[in-house]
Amino acid sequence: MRDLTGVLDAISERARQLAERTIAERAETALAAAKEACPVDTGRLRDSVTVEMSGLTASVGTSCGYAAYVEFGTSRMPARPFLEAGFQAAAAEGGA
Prior knowledge:
Number of domains: 1
Strand order of the largest sheet: 1-2
Number of helices: 4
């Protein structure tokens, strides 16, 4: 029984490692696509796009205060969805 438990633990660990690597790869794809699609004036917004990994979770985002206005638009400016482009690129790789 201990042998079986050891084998199952090893399989579980390998699956977790594979999942983490796959998530990290998709997050890097999303990051690169978001930066590529980001409109550039000064480069501040593009440079603020980052990825954060925590276990089996990855987040691509920005701390730039006006990012939402660019992503979603305003009553006076059309949307330019650069983060959505990143998500779509990751999804096209099979990540979503």
